[in-house]
């Protein structure tokens, strides 16, 4: 079974959805036959970033609300994530354009360590306050998850996976994906959002049944 997951490494619901999907897999009898590919999706492709502003300040500006209201939203998200065993810390989150990070994830797919690299980048962003746009940081994180740091720098330097990332995002547009996470099962069924493990399990079983 081929499962494609469109997501972004700065999307909190993508991390929560990843955990919930993983819980479903532990309960799925055919898990050993499931192949997962992470596809690129940029929630905000704009290149300019003010890394001096807090996540609450950026969120407040984006939705036209007060910083206090934004902080409350982030507190709720943090509590939701904690329910999945994730320790979000929005006070240290660094705003980042993720086009570069997605290229590292594409490189990881080539080496069979995509899942590990995806997890490492999500953790770095949401739990450790690391800049997942910085090349040196990405090289180090990639190496921790099974890639060669020099190859990461070389791949980002010549942009060899930039076209792959663009193609994946265009594929998302063709499929009508307008938000992430979005899970596609054998190009038959689609699941939008960080659904419960029960929902994911139902779709896994439905897909396996043909």
Tell me, briefly, the overall form. globular
- In whole angstroms, the N-to-C terminal distance is 10 Å
Q: Can you count the helices? A: 9
Strand content: 5-15%
- Average pLDDT: 97
The assembly state of the depicted protein chains is single chain
Mind summarizing the main beta sheet? Answer: 4 strands, mixed
CATH architecture label name: 3-Layer(aba) Sandwich
- Spatial ordering of strands, largest sheet: 2-1-3-4
- What sequence of helices (H) and strands (E) makes up the elements? EHEHHHHHHHEEH
CATH C-level class is: Alpha Beta
The CATH topology assignment is: Glutaredoxin
Characterization of this structure:
With 210 residues, the chain is an alpha+beta fold. The chain has one domain: Glutaredoxin (3-Layer(aba) Sandwich), CATH 3.40.30. Helix content is 54%, strand content 10%. It contains nine helices and four strands. It has a four-stranded mixed beta sheet, sandwiched between helices. A hairpin with a 3-residue loop joins strand 3 and strand 4. The chain is globular. The relative contact order is 0.20.
Helix-strand blueprint:
Blueprint lengths: L1 E6 L4 H15 L8 E6 L14 H9 L3 H16 L16 H13 L2 H15 L6 H10 L4 H10 L3 H13 L7 E4 L3 E4 L4 H12 L2
Parallel strand pairs: 1-2
Antiparallel strand pairs: 1-3, 3-4
Helix pairs in contact: 1-9, 2-3, 4-5, 5-6, 6-7
Quick summary:
By secondary structure, the chain is of the alpha+beta class. The chain has nine helices and four strands; from the N terminus they run βαβαααααααββα.
């Amino acid at each position: 079974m081929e499962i494609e997951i469109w997501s972004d490494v700065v999307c909190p619901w993508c991390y929560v959805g990843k955990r919930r999907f993983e819980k479903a897999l532990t309960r799925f009898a055919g898990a050993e036959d499931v192949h997962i590919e992470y596809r690129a999706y940029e929630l905000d492709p704009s290149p300019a970033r003010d890394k001096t502003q807090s996540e609450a300040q950026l969120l407040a500006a984006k939705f036209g609300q007060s910083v206090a209201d934004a902080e409350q939203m982030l507190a709720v998200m943090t509590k939701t994530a904690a329910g999945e065993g994730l320790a979000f810390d929005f006070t240290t989150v660094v705003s980042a354009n993720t086009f570069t990070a997605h290229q590292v994830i594409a490189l990881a797919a080539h080496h069979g360590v995509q899942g590990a690299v995806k997890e490492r980048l999500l953790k770095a962003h949401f739990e450790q306050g690391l800049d997942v746009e910085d090349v040196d940081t990405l090289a180090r994180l990639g190496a921790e998850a099974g890639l060669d740091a020099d190859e990461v720098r070389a791949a980002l330097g010549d942009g060899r996976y930039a076209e792959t990332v663009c193609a994946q995002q265009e594929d998302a547009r063709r499929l009508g994906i307008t938000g992430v996470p979005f899970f596609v099962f054998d190009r038959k069924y689609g699941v939008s959002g960080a659904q419960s493990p029960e929902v994911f399990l139902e779709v896994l079983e439905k897909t396996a049944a043909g």
